[in-house]
């Protein structure tokens, strides 16, 4: 299957303008970081706007330069360098690495930050995240996303956070950390909490891509990509000795009594660099807001909870019903990265480990039992969530043919579910362990100097091995009890050409996916029509995108793109009961596709673009062959007995086609040297074509308005986050959208007022103070099963050493 999809150009690069020359002498230089060349670095003559890029070996022919002209050199991840009029230029220009705050986020629809910098990419719909690493106490990684006002985050428990982009969520959003896919064979379609396993304190920047992005990343990016990028070890400057430095921080929040401690140590020399990071966070029970402007006096209150009396379950009254008892948890995160310079390249290692305590599934703990005043569950926990990553990367610059970036990675993910009904003696424990081996190799080339061509070729592959067990024969495993595997292989190519102030991108990808699953004969006491499952699918996707000036200072980005998602083990091989329905395996599922048209317009009326920027962006997407649960039969039966209850049979099938549309409007204005005003608002709508039923995961209108004031050594930001109402008639599947957690009319509108500040107390000490939800509003974000935090004061101290 073929279609068109946008490729991209880095949002950090300046808008392309007409290239014209002035009298001067052309000169060739090499752009380097130490001994390593920097491909696709950017140089601009600030008077004439003429520009040039370095090739794959870092060699650049400078734009023509008059005696009164100033040149600016820049590349993502490096400090800008200015060459003043009359200043001589040798054979090399050295750029030095610098930390990148999340406010300088790179928006790219394909690959790692290094690759994106070399390829020079741009996307149609840009998303900029608010600085948190140097400006705010970050909390969870999902908090960074929700505070932008451009990504909605669903929560079923405090230890969770499932981002929603363009009405897609969970396994239809691709999560990536340091260029390695996090999505695995058991990512489900409902709500996921895996994003919180990335330590927010270790982040250097985040990429968020709106829309399909399959050419380089492959499966799952129907709604978009969230790429978490942790701090990268940095080589020292040529004029410095080997150096060590670090930062330690401690923070406290009042609305959940959360305490967090973080330490990061960095060292570097001319040929080596290393970084070690550790975080420990303990979250207490979460307190909801008490200002009930929605008018309902009891919505979300926790009036009772389950306790223990001499080994017997009892229902206890909660004397403080705004305190969500049992919602607390803890998490530890460790990271160690190294980088070594080799002739013409570098070798890097990356080790990450995250482990949590048990995390109570809060939306289950408040489920009512059969008897009035009783509760259904005495315990419903996710067991310790563990994520391990080990990766080795090799970067090699090959001269004029370009550069090669190859990564080998291993991941291990452990998760479990622990359930016990009220009054029952036995617990049901399901354990999942996933091993993931992956490889990616991407070749970048700019073979013809001065003509604006950029090429990219790549291959990648991932193998997933799933082991699913239970602690007793009476408990059914969630996935095939004799093991299952998933294999994904892909190859892709793309090209970019700039001409006459315009930039044209295009790309194509082919992906192969295979699933193998094996069932024991007595699996789930269900008479399956097979004991083995084997399926294989292929998918073609592609894109084309055009960036061009329209009139004056108005820039246009247009793209046609496609994305896909191959069915995984959770789609095809799972057995799961919920709300009287039981999903059984199906070995005949095909990939689902999305075909999207995107258009954005950006207006920057002033030479200094930071004075005012206005953006309007919209998209229309056709979601084809959507994988959804449908009524089915097994051995001719529409219902089966499962765990003592008669359940209606369902299976995941390619059953629906749907339209998803949306728009985003954004403004940003630098009012003066110290003040900035910004805002964004987002609209999304989705419905099934046949019958017009509403899609799940579609958020109400939401956004953010903020005012930032900053000076030397201090900053204060006041901002409002807001959501419109979601009427009950606009809900999709009640189970997926958690209709039971809303009011009878749906989810009410809400808004919160927030203040965050930071102050430099000395050269080595910085304080951060703020108040979230200042007016103590009570609300639940759309589809969430836990009330949002009420008023919370936070304070953090950061010490550099």
What does this structure look like?
By secondary structure, the chain is mainly β. It folds into two domains: 8-98, Sandwich (Immunoglobulin-like), CATH 2.60.40; 243-322 and 329-794, Maltoporin, Chain A (Beta Barrel), CATH 2.40.170.20. The chain is 3% helix and 51% strand. It contains five helices and 48 strands. It has a 22-stranded antiparallel β-barrel. Strands 1, 2, 5 and 8 form a four-stranded mixed sheet that branches. The chain is globular, with a radius of gyration of 27 Å.
Quick overview:
The chain is mainly beta and 801 residues long.
Uncertain spans, ≥5 residues at pLDDT below 50?
Answer: 1-25, 99-135
Q: Any guess at the CATH architecture of the largest domain? A: Beta Barrel
CATH superfamily of the largest domain: TonB-dependent receptor, beta-barrel domain
Query: What is the number of domains?
Result: 2
The helix tally amounts to 5
Describe the global form. Answer: globular
Distance between the termini: 56 Å
CATH class of the largest domain: Mainly Beta
Mean pLDDT: 85
Structural class of the helix and strand makeup?
mainly beta
Q: And the CATH topology of the largest domain?
A: Maltoporin, Chain A
Question: What helical percentage do the residues reach?
Answer: under 10%
């Amino acid at each position: 299957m073929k279609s068109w999809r946008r490729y991209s150009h880095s949002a950090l690069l300046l808008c392309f303008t007409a290239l014209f020359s002035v009298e001067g002498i052309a000169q060739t230089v090499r752009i380097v970081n130490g001994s390593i060349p920097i491909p696709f670095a950017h140089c601009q003559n600030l008077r004439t706007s003429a520009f040039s890029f370095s090739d794959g070996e870092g060699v650049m022919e400078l734009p023509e330069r008059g005696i009164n002209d100033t040149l600016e050199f820049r590349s993502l991840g490096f400090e800008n360098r200015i060459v003043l009029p009359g200043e001589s230029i040798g054979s090399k220009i050295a750029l030095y690495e610098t930390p990148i705050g999340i406010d300088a986020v790179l928006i790219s629809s394909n690959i790692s930050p290094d690759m994106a910098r070399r390829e020079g990419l741009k996307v149609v719909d840009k998303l900029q995240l608010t600085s948190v690493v140097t400006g705010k106490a970050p909390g969870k990684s999902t908090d960074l996303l929700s505070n932008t006002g451009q990504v909605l985050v669903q929560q079923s428990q405090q230890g969770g956070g499932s981002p929603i982009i363009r009405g897609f969520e969970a396994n239809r959003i691709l999560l990536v950390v340091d260029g390695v896919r996090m999505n695995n064979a058991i990512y489900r379609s409902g709500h996921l909490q895996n994003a919180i396993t990335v330590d927010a304190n270790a982040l250097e920047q985040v990429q968020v891509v709106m829309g399909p992005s399959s050419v380089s990343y492959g499966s799952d990016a129907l709604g978009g990509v969230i790429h978490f990028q942790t701090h990268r070890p940095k080589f020292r400057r040529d004029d410095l000795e080997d150096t060590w430095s670090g930062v330690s921080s401690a923070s406290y929040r009042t609305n959940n009594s959360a305490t967090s401690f973080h330490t990061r140590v960095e060292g570097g020399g001319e040929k080596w660099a290393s970084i070690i990071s550790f975080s420990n966070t303990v979250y207490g029970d979460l307190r909801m807001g008490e200002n009930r402007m929605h008018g309902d006096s009891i919505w979300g209150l926790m009036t009772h909870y389950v306790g223990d009396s001499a080994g017997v379950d009892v229902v206890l009254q909660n004397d403080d019903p705004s305190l969500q008892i049992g919602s607390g948890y803890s998490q530890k995160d460790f990271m160690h990265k190294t980088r070594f310079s080799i002739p013409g390249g570098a070798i890097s290692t990356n080790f990450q480990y995250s482990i949590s305590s048990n995390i109570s599934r809060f939306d289950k703990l408040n489920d009512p039992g059969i008897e009035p005043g009783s509760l259904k569950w005495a315990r419903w926990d996710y067991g310790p969530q563990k994520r391990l990553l080990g990766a080795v990367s090799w970067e090699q610059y090959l001269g004029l043919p370009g550069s090669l970036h190859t990564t080998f990675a291993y991941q291990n993910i452990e998760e479990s579910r622990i359930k016990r009904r009220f009054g029952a003696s036995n617990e049901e424990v399901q354990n999942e362990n996933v091993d993931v081996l992956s490889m990616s190799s991407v070749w970048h080339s700019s073979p013809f100097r001065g003509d604006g061509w950029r090429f990219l070729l790549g291959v990648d592959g991932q193998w997933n091995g799933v082991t699913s067990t239970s602690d007793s024969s009476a408990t059914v495993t969630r996935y095939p009890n004799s093991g299952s595997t998933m294999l994904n292989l892909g190859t892709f190519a793309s090209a970019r050409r700039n001409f006459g102030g315009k930039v044209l991108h295009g790309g194509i990808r082919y992906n192969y996916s295979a699933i193998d699953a094996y069932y024991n004969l007595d699996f789930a006491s269900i008479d399956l029509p097979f004991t083995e499952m084997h399926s294989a699918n292929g998918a073609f996707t592609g894109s084309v995108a055009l960036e061009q000036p329209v009139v004056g200072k108005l820039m246009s980005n247009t793209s046609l793109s496609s994305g896909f998602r191959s069915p995984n083990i959770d789609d095809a091989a799972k057995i799961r009961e919920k709300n009287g329905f039981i999903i059984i395996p199906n070995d005949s599922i095909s990939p689902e596709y999305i075909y999207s048209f995107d258009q954005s317009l950006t207006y920057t009326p002033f030479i200094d673009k930071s004075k005012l920027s206005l953006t309007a962006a919209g998209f229309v997407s056709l979601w084809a062959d959507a994988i959804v649960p449908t009524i089915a039969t097994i051995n001719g039966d529409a219902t089966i007995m499962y765990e003592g209850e008669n359940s209606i049979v369902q299976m995941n099938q390619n059953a629906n086609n749907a339209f998803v549309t949306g728009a985003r409007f954004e403004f940003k204005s630098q009012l003066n040297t110290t003040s900035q005003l910004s805002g964004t608002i987002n609209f999304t709508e989705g419905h099934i074509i046949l019958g017009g039923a509403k899609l799940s995961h579609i958020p109400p209108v939401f956004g953010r308005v903020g005012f930032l004031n900053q000076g030397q050594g201090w900053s204060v930001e006041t901002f409002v986050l807001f959501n419109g109402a979601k009427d009950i008639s606009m809900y999709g599947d009640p189970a997926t959208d958690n209709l039971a957690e809303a009011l009878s009319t749906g989810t009410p509108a809400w808004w919160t007022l927030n203040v965050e500040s930071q102050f430099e107390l000395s050269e080595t000490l910085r304080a951060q103070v703020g108040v979230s939800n200042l007016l103590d509003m009570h609300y639940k974000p759309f589809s969430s099963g836990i009330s949002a935090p009420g008023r919370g004061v936070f304070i953090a101290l950061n010490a550099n050493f």
